[in-house]
Amino acid sequence: MRKPAVAGLFYPSDPEVLKSFILGSVSDERLPAKGVLVPHAGYEYSGRVAVRTLSSVEPKFETVVIIGVDHANSGRTSTDLEDWETPLGIIKIDTEFARELKLRKGTPGMEHSIEVQVPIVQVLFPDVRFVPVCMPHGDFEKAKEIGEKIFRVAEKLGRNILVVASSDLTHHGPGYGYVKYSGSPDEILRGIRKEDDELLQRVLAFDVDGIIQFGRHGTACGYGCIAAMVHAVRSLAAAHSKVIEYTTSYEVSRDISHVVSYAGVVFW
Ligand SMILES: [Zn+2]
């Protein structure tokens, strides 16, 4: 059993507080989605975007594949056969699916990018099974291979799946080693937004090669996750896409020296 690593840090550890945060952010929209892009910062920054995005998905899938990024870049792409626990209880792994992926077993124990999405899934889709896929952030060139595997296993097992890519967008500020925009907060945020729009245009157009190319100079953490998810959902015949919500850490922190941006996107 994988125990929670970041409960109380990235999201509330109290089950009631956690549940009411999630239920307080749900959207009214329901799309027959095959994939989503969601952010993975602490819930105070990006939890609302993640919940609104995931809650705009129709509950018509049996297994959720959550592709997260290994921020520590500690090894190869991995999955888990052991169930995961959060403050809301246990989520069962779709072991048949996870096994068929033929990836390394055992995701990084302290990584948060997959874990922060799990309580949201538990509240919104209590009956689904789960497959974690953790990709080193430097490994985005292999994204198509991972996306193709996910698609093929879903086909082989006849499984209805939702593929979730967990990634934040631009990281701007000296602490991230990336300072490109200056001036007023508005000017800086406009620069970041323009850069995000360039990536999101590729994402919305199912342009997997464009995403990978962007990843060679951009500062998002999960180009691999995004490209793998987009490849998988394109193969699953998704043809529509839409940004549900966009925000930045500045909305909460009011600290313009370090800004991270977040988008929620649905594909159906
Ligand atoms: Zn990240």
Description:
The protein has 268 residues and is α/β, with parallel strands linked by helices. It has one domain: Protocatechuate 4,5-dioxygenase, Chain B, CATH 3.40.830.10. The chain is 35% helix and 21% strand. The chain is built from 9 helices and 11 strands. It has helices spanning 15-23, 43-54, 95-100, 118-124, 143-157, 185-204, 208-215, 223-235, 250-253; strands at residues 35-38, 63-70, 78-79, 84-86, 89-91, 104-105, 129-136, 161-166, 171-172, 241-248, 259-267. The strands form 3 sheets. Strands 1, 2, 7, 8, 9, 10 and 11 form a 7-stranded mixed beta sheet that branches. Strand 4 and strand 5 (89-91) form a beta hairpin. Helix 1 packs across helix 4 (118-124), helix 5 (143-157) runs parallel beside helix 8 and helix 7 runs antiparallel to helix 8 (223-235). The mean pLDDT is 97.
In summary, what is this structure?
By secondary structure, the chain is α/β, with parallel strands linked by helices. It has helices at residues 15-23, 43-54, 95-100, 118-124, 143-157, 185-204, 208-215, 223-235, 250-253; strands at 35-38, 63-70, 78-79, 84-86, 89-91, 104-105, 129-136, 161-166, 171-172, 241-248, 259-267.
